[in-house]
Design goal:
heterodimer; A: about 375 residues; alpha/beta; Peroxisomal Thiolase, Chain A, domain 1; ten-stranded mixed beta sheet; two-stranded antiparallel ribbon; B: 1 helix; about 40% strand
């Protein structure tokens, strides 16, 4: 696959009450274009990943909205796939370049969530699930709690193992200047925090966040510092949990991953760093298993043993950015932020959180309770 | 969710699901509800496998703490889903209760 990432940038993630969606997008895109050394006239299309601007902010037509803000008059698209909107936007951007229609395009992920009441954000996010789940009042923490319970019952996964995911990701976030939460937490704090949907506590859950991230991608020859996209895959499962055959895995993740490994001619063991979709602690455990890094039931104890922590891992590091839990989860921005993190790691410019010698990175971005999964594999330009 | 037309259309589905029995295969208690369920929280939400093999996600009603467990037998019942909307239409739906 002859597609390169030549520029990448994120804004700070967090409760950014003084910052508008326009400002977020401009900062991320400007950063990515300066990084790429690309002029506006070279950009041929814009792909915007976003989930909630319509239901929360009343603003749709985001392709035109952000193109106007960025001073671009190019084909512009909004791509929506719940919390996988960012990953889907990049996938569509990659496909557009591979088609030959465009040479250089921008994939932007952006979300503004903290302007609204948590109850309203929870309602809006439930648009990602099924009608049956909405009528049951099953929030997203509730749906992942149902998955947690089955995993615990089947594999003996313990609450303290789930908590270890959040503790690790807060540690990684403490090393990331753009992260929402730069403070360390303990297992006891996670277990003792307010229950949101049993068995998940507040600190098992990623936060409500604002933020944006952008990448510039291009076909053909590219500068030395660029990163190659060697796989970009999407898989789809049923919207609702009740319609799934298995509740101990996300089939969409397994499906997207197996095709991505084949496309890139690599195996799970070749991956040095992974940015995975830890919207809830259980989601990182499911991801580590479904991506083939660990056998079923083995990921949670491994995270507890610090096997995927920066500075302690002997093999794979997971969520060096701090993940959704530590870095923040502006839903449409997350899938692009994961890619920006991989780019910085592969270039060796990730500062305090640099994973030494990282050559191949994987990003897994999930929509809903696993109805959509997007996997990208990137490597240093060869 | 609250359009009167949609509520009317959903009635047909409700009748096909009534009076069925099954078992809880997973459960949670939602303590941070969405806006329209604020008056009900905390409430139980369960995944149920019915005897005909069909699964559904539903609210649990009329339950005691000891009944909140995997394997608990339940039956489907009709209940009010949320408060009436501005048009005064009461949305009813399927919930499950322990037996």
């Amino acid at each position: 696959m002859n597609v390169s990432i030549i520029g990448a940038a994120t804004t700070k993630f967090g409760e950014l009450w003084a910052v508008s969606p326009r400002m977020l997008a401009r900062e991320a895109v400007h950063g990515a274009m300066v990084d790429a050394g690309t002029e506006a006239r070279e950009i041929q299309a814009l792909f915007v990943g976003n989930m909630l601007s319509g239901i929360l902010g009343g603003q749709e037509h985001l392709g035109a909205f952000f193109a106007e803000e960025l001073g671009l008059t190019v084909p512009a698209f909004k791509i929506e796939g719940a919390c996988a909107s960012g990953g889907l936007a990049l996938h569509n951007a990659v496909c557009s370049v591979l088609s030959g229609q465009y040479k250089t395009v921008i994939a932007l992920g952006v979300e503004k969530m903290t302007d609204h009441r948590p109850e309203d954000v929870a309602t809006a996010l439930m648009g990602a699930g099924s009608e049956e789940e909405r009528l049951a009042g099953a929030t997203f923490p509730g749906l992942y709690a149902l998955l947690s319970r089955v995993h615990m019952e089947t594999y003996g996964t313990r609450p303290q193992d789930l908590a270890a995911v959040s503790v690790k990701n807060h540690y990684h976030a403490s090393l990331n200047p753009n992260a929402q939460f730069r403070r360390l937490i303990t297992i006891e704090q996670v277990l003792g925090s307010t229950k949101i949907a049993d068995p998940l506590t507040l600190l098992d859950c990623s936060p409500i966040s604002d933020g944006a991230a952008a990448v510039v991608i291009t076909s053909g020859q590219s500068p030395k510092k660029s990163v190659s996209i060697v796989a970009s895959t999407v898989a789809t499962d049923t919207l609702g949990l009740a319609q799934r055959k298995s509740l101990t895995e996300l089939r969409a993740t397994k499906d997207a991953a197996s095709r991505a490994y084949k496309m890139a001619s690599v195996e799970a063991k070749d991956i040095d760093i992974a940015e995975v979709h830890d919207c809830f602690s259980i989601a990182e455990i499911l991801a580590l298993e479904d991506l083939g890094f660990y056998a079923k039931g083995k990921a949670a104890p491994a995270v507890s043993r610090n096997e995927v922590t920066i500075g302690k891992s002997k093999r794979l590091v997971v969520n060096p950015s701090g993940g959704l839990k530590g870095c923040g989860h502006p839903v449409g921005a997350t899938g692009i932020k994961q890619i920006v993190e991989l780019v910085e790691q592969l270039r060796g410019i990730a500062g305090d959180r640099q994973v030494k010698g990282a050559k191949i990175g994987l990003a897994q971005n999930v929509g809903g309770s696993g109805a959509t999964a997007v996997v990208h594999i990137v490597c240093k330009a060869r | 969710m609250q359009s009167p037309v949609k509520i009317w259309r959903n009635q047909k589905k409700i009748t096909t699901l009534l009076g069925k029995t099954g078992r809880i295969i997973s459960w949670t208690i939602v303590r941070t509800p969405p806006a329209q369920f604020m008056d009900q929280a905390p409430y139980g939400v369960v995944l149920v496998e019915l005897e005909d093999g069909m699964r559904l996600t539903a609210q649990l009603v009329d339950w005691q703490p000891k009944q909140l467990k995997i394997g608990q037998r339940v039956t489907t019942v009709v209940r009010r889903v949320t408060q009436p909307n501005a048009d005064g239409v009461i949305p009813y739906g399927i919930k499950v209760k322990p037996i």
